[in-house]
Batch of 2 targets.
Target 1
Amino acid sequence: MRKTYRRAFRKVGNEALRGMDLTVPEGSAFGLIGPNGAGKTTFIKSILGIVQPTEGTVRVLGGSPEDPRIRARIGYLPERLHLPGSWTPTAFLATVTRLKGLKPDAAADLRLLERVGLADAVGRKIGGYSKGMRQRLGLAAAMVGSPSLLILDEPTDGIDPMGRLEVRRILLEEVRKGTTLFLNSHLLAETERVCDRVAILADGRVVREGRLEDLARGEARWMVRFAPGVDAGALTAAGFKRGSADGVFHVEAQDPMALNAALDKARAGGALLVELRRDGADLESVLLGTVAPAGAVGVAA
Amino acid sequence: MNPVLGIAGYVLREAVARKFILAFVVGITLVLSVVALSLRIEVVDGALAASRLFGEELRASIRSVDVALRPVYTAAAFIVFYGGILFGIVACSDFAPSLLSPGRIEHLLALPIQRWHLLAGTFLGVMVLALGGTLYGTTGLVLIFGVKAGYWTAGPLIAGLMACVGFAAVYAVMLTTATLVRSAALCAASGFLFLIGGVIAGFRQQISPAFEEGLSRSTFEAVTLMLPRLSSLAVAAGNIASSTPLEVNSLGMLLLGVLVFGFGALAVGFWRFEGKDY
C-alpha cells in the first residue's frame, strides 16, 4: 500500500507510506512502533478508511474499511481524542452507542465506565476531566459494543502509572476474550508487555515484523552467571566470553545439545551455575538496531 | 437510529451547551416579555383606537388593526430575516469546523456511519436549531399581538420559515467552506460574503446601470445571476408577514432558486468531503 499526500500548487507530494505490506493475525495483540514520521498514524487511518490509499488495498475483518458494517466491529481510540467538554460521560457513550447502530444501554455504559476506572466521575462533565481521565473515557468509547478489533493510538498517553496497569489489564482481558488488538504506543515497555507481535515501521515501510520473542531473540547467544570464585581462564577455554558483571559470561550455542555440552565443560572445571537465560534484546534495542542504520533513530512511535 | 438524526442530535446537544445560544433564547424571551408587558392596545370594532408603549401614548390615526400592524410585522419580518441570518452565521460558524477538528473527525469517521451522514446530520441539526429559534420568536410575536389586538395571522410564521430557507442556503455555503478549511472564522466570512452577495443579487437590476456598459456590467450580471436573491426573499417575507401584495413576480421560483443553490452548494461540500483525507 502507498499513500502520497498531494499538496496544492506542488508537483511532488509527501509520501507517507511507500509500499507497506502487513498482515495482522486475527486474535493477536499487534504493536506498531517506529520513529516519528514513519507513517504509523497514516497507516492506522488507512485501516479505518479515514485516509484513502493512493495505491493498494486494505482488508479489515474480511471486508473493506469503507463498509460501515465492518467499521461497526472496530473500536478506535485516536491519538488526541477531542471530546465534547459540556457533555457527561454517560451522554457521550450513549451517543457513541447510537452512532454504532446499537440500542442505548445505560447499565452497560456504566459498567464500561467502571471498568476503565471512571465510576467516581460519572456525574462530572467531560470538560472537568484530566487528560488521563479523557483517555480512559476514549478507551471506554472504543470498547462500546465489544468490537472484534481494537485500534488504539497511544492509549496510555497521560495516564498515571497505576492507571497504565489498569489499562494494560483491560487490554490483556480483551485479547484473552479473542479481540484483535492493534496498538500504537510510544511506550515501548507497554507494547512489549501487551503485544505478542510487533511491526517496525520506518520511512513508510515495514522494516521488521514478527513475534516479539523472535524479534528480541539474540540469535544463539546465551547469558550464563556462575557463582563467585569461578576460573575465568577455564571458562574462556570452554568457549565462554566474559560479560560486563562479575560472574557473568556469554556463550554461543545453536541448539540445546551444544549449550549443555558447553555447560558440562564449565561445571567440569568447577564452575557452579546460578543463572541461565537467552541473551535477548528489549524492544528498544530491537527498534534502535533496526532503524539506526538508516540514520533515523528518534523517539519511537 | 438513523445516523443523520444521531449526528443532528450530536450537534443540537453541542448547541444547547453554548452559552450564547442560551443567551439568544433568553434575549428573545425578554424582548417578547417586554413587548407583552409594556404594550397596551385598545381595539374598538376592529380598529386600533389607542396604543400605549411604556405608558406613553403612541399617536396615530384610527385605522383597522391589520393595517396598523403592517409596519410592525414588516419590521419584525426583516429583523427575523437579516438578524436571524446574521446571528445564525456567527452562532453556527464553528459547529462544522468543531466536528471536523482533529481528534473528533477521526473518531466520528471510524464509527459505522457514511461520510455524507456527518454533513447531512450537521446541516439538519443547525436547521432544526434555526427553525426552533425562528418559530419561537415569531410565534411569540403572533400570540402577543393576537391576544392584545385580536388580529390573528400566520404571516409572520411564514416569513420566519422563509428566513430559514434563506439561512439554509447561507449555511450550505458555510458547511461547504468547512470541508475545504476547518476554520470557524472563514466559515463565518463565507456566510457574510454570501449574504451580501445575495442582497446585491436581489437589487441587480437597479445596481447594474451603475456599472459601465460592457465587460464590467456583464461580469456583474453574470455573477449576481448565479446567486440567490436573498434580499428579494426578505422583501417577500415582509410582504407575507404584513399581508400585503407580493412585490416579487414569482415567490415559487424565488424559493426554488434559493433551495437549488443551497443544495448545489451542499452537493459540492459532500463531494469534497467524500474524497478528503483527515
Note: The mean pLDDT of chain B is 91.
Target 2
Amino acid sequence: MGCLVDGPLTNELIGSLASMLREDKSCGGHSSFMGMVRADEEGGRTVRAIEYSAHGPMAEKSAAEISSEIKAQFDDVREVTIVHSTGIVEAGELSLLVLVSAGHRRQAMEACARTVELVKERLPVWKKEIYSDNTHNWRRNEPL
Amino acid sequence: MAKVIFFGVLTDVAGTRVRHFNGAASVKELLLLIEGEYPEIIHYDYRIAVNNEFIDGDLPLSESDEVSFMPPFAGG
C-alpha cells in the first residue's frame, strides 16, 4: 500500500498492519506512533476537524526515501511503515501512523521517533484546521 | 500551457487548486504571471516543484509541464 489513505486511519487498517508484523520473525521490537487530531481551542473556537491535503507522487517518494534513510541510519531496523491521512479527519480520529520494526527495542523506539520528525519535516502534506464555527486556518507545524 | 497546482494556504491565495497558464516559457516567466494575477502570494513562503522535482532558480517550461507551488509542510 502507499503512504496516503483517504480519511481517518481505521481500526481495521491498523489491525491489518499490526497483524503483518508477525511475518518477520527476526524482529523482536515494534515501535509505533499514532498522531490524532486534537480538539484545540483558539479564540473561543474549537478545532472540529483537520482537512489534510498532499502532493501524492512527491509524498510517496518522500516516504520511501525516509524509510530508506532510517534503515541506513539504524542497522537493526528491518521495516518502516508510514501511513498518513488525506481529506477530512475529525477531532479524536487518527491521521498518522509510523510503525518501525527492529531486531531489538532500542533501535525500534529511537528510529520510530526519528521517523516521525522526518515525516513532519519532509512529507508534502498540509493541514487546514476547521473550527466549530466553520472558519478555517492553515496550520504550520510547531517545533518539537 | 503549463499546469499549475497550488497547495496548502496558497489554494486560498489563488482561490483555486489547479490553473493553466499560457505564455510562460520558463519558471521565471510563470512567476511573473502568477505574481501579477495574485499579488498577495509574495507574502508567503513556498518552494516550486516541476514535474514532481523541487527546483532552485529558473528552468525552461514546456506546455506539458506540471508546476507545484508548495508552502512549508505541515503533516502529522
Note: The helical segments of chain B are 10-14, 27-37.
